[in-house]
Design goal:
The chain is of the alpha/beta class and about 260 residues long. The chain is built from eight helices and ten strands.
């Protein structure tokens, strides 16, 4: 089992994130592959401290220059190739897990259901003060059988938070090299492999704060980034399904913009 973590200037949060990894109780071994993108706030020092304390768990990737600025995905380029586990769990350095049995529950579910490509769970979203702004997100477990299919996803189903996903690494070989691998892209290709199943258990926290890479983008920048991701999938596949994925996002955002202007 591999835990894939990326960090950048997460000094106020990184200890809580790493402690959530270490507290996991499993009947299988796991490793922590952690990538620091040339942090300047002391994040790297904390990582090295944990590596020294838990040398058998941590496998650090410490960049000397920031790679995110290159406009390409960090997970697919640097972290996933280092992961050796039968499954991969994801978590960014400013998010954290709250249940010590999280990995055990998700891996057991995937072991029992070989046709599922991944599992995920609901979580809380908190602001920079630590106050909960959204509880039990996403509410996908209200779907029939708690499943998300590719058709659900293309039709507008809420995307799981990255921190909640555990997936089969076979998907990595199917990711198009020309496409920047964001959470949208990864989840699209996971759902091409098989359905995703949601656990209706709240086992983690996503921080929505101004220093986050996604949170600090303007509304327009988020729209552009999302459209580019979907266009990247279409350019790689050229299928009717991938075209629909692009078309629907334009319609959704057109509606949102109109509502905002009323």
């Amino acid at each position: 089992m591999s835990i894939a973590c990326i960090t950048y200037n997460h000094a106020p949060y990184i200890r809580q994130c790493l402690d959530g990894f270490i507290m996991q109780q499993t009947d299988f071994d796991f490793e922590i592959v952690i990538h620091d993108d040339a942090s300047t706030d002391g994040t790297r020092d904390v990582i090295l401290e944990y590596c020294s304390k838990y040398p058998k768990l941590f496998r650090p990737i410490l960049q000397e220059q920031n790679r995110y600025k290159e406009g390409k995905g960090i997970f697919a380029r640097f972290v996933f190739p280092k992961c050796r586990g039968k499954y991969i769990a994801m978590c960014e350095g400013d998010d954290y897990w709250t249940d010590p049995l999280k990995l055990q529950k998700q891996v057991s579910l995937l072991e029992e259901n070989i046709n599922y490509s991944c599992s995920f769970h609901v979580c809380n979203i908190v602001n920079s003060l630590g106050d909960t702004v959204l509880e039990d997100y996403p509410q996908c477990y209200k779907f029939e059988d708690s499943l998300i299919t590719l058709e659900n996803f293309i039709g507008g189903s809420a995307i799981p938070q990255t921190l909640s996903v555990v997936f089969r690494p076979e998907v990595i070989s199917t990711l198009p090299p020309s496409c920047r691998v964001t959470d949208i892209v990864l989840f699209y290709y996971l759902l091409k492999m098989g359905n995703a199943i949601c656990l209706a258990e709240n086992m983690g926290v996503y921080r929505n704060h101004s220093a986050g890479e996604w949170s600090r983008l303007s509304y327009t920048q988020k729209i552009i980034s999302t459209i580019k991701c979907r266009l990247g999938i279409y350019e790689a596949e050229g299928t009717n399904l991938s075209a629909l994925f692009v078309i629907l996002i334009f319609n959704i955002y057109q509606i949102i913009v109109i509502i905002k202007e009323l």
